[in-house]
Each structure stands twice: as C-alpha cells, then as structure tokens.
Amino acid sequence: MVILPAIDLLEGRCVRLRQGDYAQRTEYGDDPLAVAMAYREAGATWVHVVDLDGARSGSPSPRHLRIVAEIARDSGLSVQFGGGIKSRAAAEDALGVGVRRFVIGSALVRDPDLAAWCFGRYPEQTVAGIDCKGGLVATHGWTQDSGRTAEDLARSAAAMGARRLVVTDIATDGMLVGPNLDLLLRVHRAAGLPVIASGGVSGLQDLRALSALDSAVEGVIVGKALYEGRFMLAEALAALGMV
Are 15 and 52 in contact (CB under 8 A)? Predict the structure, then answer.
C-alpha cells in the first residue's frame, strides 16, 4: 500500500478543510514546494495535490498549475493531481506540466463523455474520484449532492474504463476519526477496482487497518494527521515496511 501525503492548495497556500467546508480551513504554510520536498526527504514517492480553487470554480481549468508544475519538476515525487479537470485541454495541460496521474471527480457525473475520453486516452493516468456524503456522491468541490450512490458511480466508472478509484468519505475528511473501511470495501466490491483511500486517517493504527484490506486498498492519502504531527511520514513508511 502506497502512502500519498496530501497538499491541498487554496489561494496559493497549503490548507486543510474540515469535511470539505471552505469556511473551516486551517493554513499550514505558503510554500507548497517546500512541503513536497520535506515529504520526499522523509521517503515518499508520491504526493496527492488538490486544487481547491479549481474544484469549486466554474472554470474549465485548474487554478494552480504553475505550483503543480514546480512540484512535479523539482520535488522528485510522482504527482497525483485533482481539482478542476473539467475539459480535455485541462487533462492534457496537467499531464503536460508533469502530473503522473489526474483525478476525474465531478466530470464522472456532470460530463461522462469527458470521463470516458480520459479513461480511453489515458487509462493509467486517469483516476476516478468518488467523494461521498452519507453514501451519496458530492460534486463541484463537495458543494453539490449528485443523488447517486458511491457504488453506482463506481460501477459506471469501471464501465467507462477506470482502473482505480480515489474514494473519500467527506464526513471523516480532516476529522482524524479513522477511515470509513465499510465504504471503501463496498465501493471496491461494486467496481471490482483497487481503491485509494482518502479521509479520516488519525494514526498508525488506521494505516495498518487499511493495509490489512490487502488488494482492495492500493494506497492511502494522508493530510491532516501529518500536518498535526499525529505521526511522522518516515515512521508511517517504516510501520508498513516501505523503507
């Protein structure tokens, strides 16, 4: 299982939100590249970067590609990027600045033709993002309820050609209450695809619980627990036998 430390960008700064609420944010610095470099020095191989401005805006393109390009070019990390991929051009722009994988979230519901195009043209680079509130998928930076269940959208993504899913339980995101293991397993079984877990990790015990799910969970995104010092990244990697 791969650990992907998170960098969430809002107005150019590193932040974390509580349950996706833009009004409840904590800032952790104004140098995202320095954060990425610290992750690399601790032993990370991947970083998960989210453009929160792009996720909630009506713009067809992300807002922070310059910062993402710096991280991809200078940190030595493989970048998984989400937020604001709402057009073919945006997907290609992200790959063009060095992103290794990008996440299609709202487009799975809003623009399935775009999602299918991304999965068909860039099958290894495109990840389906499924963000849930109470089992129902939320879109547009988690501000709108789609009315679709996570399992239903996961099956649709698999039919479109998705090869992996990022699954976020918004209720646990930024709350340090532990991941929603039941949700992860339900979505994995519905789609028959490996899952990257996001939301709720509070300590090493949560990482061990996720790792015990074997092939169901191939990665975990960790944000607030690292920023708040619940554990060190190097400690987590060692606990999972990754160093």
Answer: yes
pTM of the predicted protein model: 0.92
> What length is written for the chain?
243
Q: Which two tokens stand for residue 84?
A: 């604001």
pLDDT value of residue 67: 94
**Are the C-beta atoms of residues 8 and 43 closer than 8 Å to each other?**
no
**31 belongs to the catalytic site:** no
What span, in angstroms and rounded, lies between the C-alpha atoms of 101 and 83?
Answer: 12
Q: How far is CA 6 from CA 38, 47, 52, 131, in A?
A: 12, 6, 12, 16
Domain spans of the chain, in order of start: 2-239
Secondary-structure class of domain 2-239 per CATH = alpha beta
- The string of pLDDT tens digits covering residues 81-139 is 998 899 999 999 999 999 999 999 989 998 999 999 999 999 999 999 999 988 889 88
Catalytic residue among 131, 169, 173, 206: 131
Which residues, 6 or more positions from 119, have their beta carbon under 8 angstroms from its beta carbon?
104, 126, 128, 157, 160, 161, 162, 163
Look up 145 and say whether it is catalytic. Answer: no
DSSP state of 178: -
For 24-70, how does the pLDDT look when each residue is reduced to its tens digit (9 = 90+)?
888 888 899 999 999 999 999 999 999 988 777 656 567 789 999 99
Q: Which of 8, 51, 53, 206 is catalytic?
A: 8
Q: Helix/strand/coil (H, E, C) string of 63-109? A: CCHHHHHHHHHHCCCEEEEECCCCCHHHHHHHHHCCCCEEEECHHHH
User: Could you give phi then psi for residue 186, rounded to 5 degrees?
Assistant: -60, -45
Q: What is the mean pLDDT of the chain?
A: 91
Q: How far apart are CA 116 and CA 129, in angstroms?
A: 13
